[in-house]
Amino acid sequence: MNVLILGATGRVGSQIVTYALHDRHHVTVLVRNPEKFQINNENLTIIQGNVLNKDDIVRAMHGIDVVISALNTDGTTTLSESMPLIIEAMENEGMKRIITIGTAGILQSRTTPNSLRYQSSESKQKSTRAAKEHHKVYDLLKQSTIEWTIVCPTYLPDGERLGEYRVERDFLPVDGVKINVSDTAEFTYKQIESNNYIKSRVGIAY
Q1: How many Cβ atoms from other residues are within 10 Å of residue 94's Cβ?
Q2: What is the mean pLDDT of residues 1-25?
Q3: What is the pLDDT of residue 38?
Q4: Which tens digits make up the pLDDT trace of 156-186?
Q5: What pTM was computed for the model?
Q6: CA distance to 9, 24, 32, 99, 148, per residue, from 198 (Å)
Q7: Contact between 111 and 120 (Cβ < 8 Å)
Q8: Domain that holds residue 37
């Protein structure tokens, strides 16, 4: 399978690249600084570019079967500004499948019906800026024709892959407080061959 990974230099994205190459998929990454990308593999194509540049996105999409976006908010609006370009390029190419990393803040609240977690007392985050960025992406994907899945981890420390975790459609698993980067990357990667969570958010936690 030809997989495009965005956000490939980040904590989650770089591990998704490793999982995909291990299974001998052909991986394309779009990165601003190729010299920062330390992986060498015959199945890896590195394209220098920016997710905010429409031409770069179109170039990276060529011949791709599935897109994984592990772009993070980083105190910017890159996430919400790039998603319309990604969706347009996918729809123009006739591509259907995207898996993105979101945040537990955009899952449904258990305590406040019709609200998302970041809009309710469930969220412990003092700042809602990142969640609002992810919420914009969620709304954009809902309005699109593509088959999306948003993986929504809670607190995301580094750590060894445990291989066991709980997932729940649209909600954070009850009493879930954290999920390691490695397990988040593994679950996200596995969705390229799964139809279990099409057009759904997925909460993930131990």
Answers
A1: 6
A2: 97
A3: 84
A4: 999 999 999 999 999 999 999 999 999 999 9
A5: 0.96
A6: 26, 24, 30, 9, 6
A7: yes
A8: 2-205
Residue 131 tokens read as 């969640």
- Cα 4 vs. chain centroid, distance in angstroms? 12
Structure tokens at 25: 């998929």
CATH of the domain at 31: 3.40.50.720
Burial class of residue 147 in the structure, from the number of CB atoms within 10 Å of its CB (0-12 exposed, 13-18 middle, 19+ buried): middle
Q: Residue 158, SS3?
A: coil
Structure-token pair, residue 115: 């609200």
In 143-204, which residue ranges form alpha helices assigned H by DSSP? Answer: 181-190
CA pseudo-torsion sign 82, 40, 180, 197:
positive
CB within 8 Å of 145: residues ≥ 6 apart: 91
Q: Give the number of C-alpha atoms closer than 13 A to the C-alpha of residue 76, restricted to the C-beta side.
A: 9
Cα–Cα dist 75/69, whole Å:
17
pLDDT single digits (tens) 48-59: 999 999 999 999
132 vs 117: CA distance, rounded Å: 11
Strands, E, within 86-199: which ranges?
97-101, 147-153, 166-169
d(CA 58, CA 98): 15
Could you tell me the pLDDT band of residue 105, with boundaries at 50, 70 and 90?
Answer: very high
Number of domains in the chain: 1
74: its two tokens:
């980083």
